[in-house]
């Protein structure tokens, strides 16, 4: 099949066209996933852009994004396929009135018109280019993980009533994990591995300027510095990249031209979503003017 990207540099450039700033590590793994036709296991803290990477790859390549959102209790009927039992029952009742023999009825109700495709089967059967996102795979049970292994190994699925359905093309597959549990060695062995962490200061500043183009460089740098300082505090949930962007937009909407302690105090709830984190951050950043100092606030104004 034709490759989507010719070079690692092309990955960087094409992702940038959809406002995703990929570093060399991210771009290199995406390039190899395309060349080797292997899934990518993307791990890292919540909010660093793992899901956004899949969306950006789909948007930059003109592919269709198919997403399987994982959760505890996800099973084959929600991930792969199931039969439309209500429709089957109606057909059985209709055929009974016409005294149709059971073999004919069975062949009828276990056919394509009665099949409900779920994300995995939908990706397998797709004829157009696809990016398959299996989001938060660490939330599913071991049994469901085994189902994913079967599908990802050969990219085909066997339906007893219909036979084996083979994939028409190999999509780019991304599995994301927030490390809530250890994934099996078998799953990891089948994937390329990518760890995505919070961006460094310069990259986060660049992300803010790309996603909020009306912001000036000085304010973007101040925002990135303060967010970096907040993430160094022992919090229940550190600010995500999307929350950094939301904060930047908030400051613009409020007409703020610089990041001062009173501005941070007024808008800190945009970055942090737990009361305990707000209290701890206010104390660590000395927003009430009573603590030992503010790590990062002074730096943000220089």
Question: What does this 3D model show about the protein?
Answer:
- This protein has 302 residues and is of the alpha/beta class.
- It has helices at residues 8-16, 24-36, 50-61, 76-79, 85-97, 102-109, 119-125, 142-154, 185-189, 201-211, 217-231, 241-253, 261-271, 275-284, 297-301, and strands spanning 40-43, 64-69, 81-83, 115-117, 130-135, 156-159, 163-166, 172-177, 192-195.
- The chain is elongated and about 85 Å long.
- Poorly predicted segments: 291-296, 298-302
Q: Give the termini separation.
A: 52 Å
Total helical segments: 15
* Sheet with the most strands: spatial strand order: 2-5-8-1-9
Overall structural class, as computed from helix and strand content, comes to alpha/beta
Radius of gyration: 24 Å
Number of E-type strands: 9
- Amount of helix: 40-55%
DSSP strand (E) fraction? 5-15%
Instruction: Name the shape in a single word.
Output: elongated
Average per-residue pLDDT, rounded, comes to: 89
């Amino acid at each position: 099949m034709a490759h989507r990207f010719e070079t690692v540099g092309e990955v960087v450039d094409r992702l940038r066209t959809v406002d995703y700033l990929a570093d060399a590590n991210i771009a290199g793994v995406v390039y190899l996933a395309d060349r080797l036709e292997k899934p990518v296991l993307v791990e890292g803290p919540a909010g660093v852009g793992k899901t956004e990477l899949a969306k950006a790859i789909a948007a930059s390549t003109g592919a269709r994004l198919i997403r399987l959102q994982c959760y505890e209790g996800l099973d084959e009927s929600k991930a792969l396929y199931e039969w439309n039992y209500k429709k089957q029952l109606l057909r059985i009742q209709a055929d009974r009135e016409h005294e149709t023999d059971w073999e004919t009825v069975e062949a009828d109700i276990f056919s394509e018109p009665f099949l409900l495709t779920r994300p995995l089967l939908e990706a397998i059967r797709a004829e157009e280019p696809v990016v398959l996102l299996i989001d938060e795979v660490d939330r599913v049970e071991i049994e469901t993980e085994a189902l994913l292994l079967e599908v990802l190994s050969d990219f085909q699925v066997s339906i007893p009533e219909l036979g084996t359905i083979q994939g028409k093309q190999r999509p780019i597959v991304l599995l994301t994990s927030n490390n809530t549990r250890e994934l099996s060695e078998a799953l990891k062995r089948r994937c390329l591995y990518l760890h995505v962490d919070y961006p460094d200061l310069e990259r986060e500043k660049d992300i803010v300027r790309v996603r909020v183009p009306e912001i000036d460089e000085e304010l973007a740098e101040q925002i990135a510095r303060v967010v970096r300082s907040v993430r160094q505090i022992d919090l229940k949930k550190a600010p995500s990249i999307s929350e950094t962007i939301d904060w930047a937009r908030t400051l613009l909407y409020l007409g703020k031209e610089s990041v001062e302690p009173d501005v941070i105090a007024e808008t800190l709830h945009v970055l942090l979503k737990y009361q305990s984190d707000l209290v701890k951050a206010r104390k660590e950043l000395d927003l009430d003017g009573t603590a030992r100092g503010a790590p990062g606030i002074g730096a943000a104004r220089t």
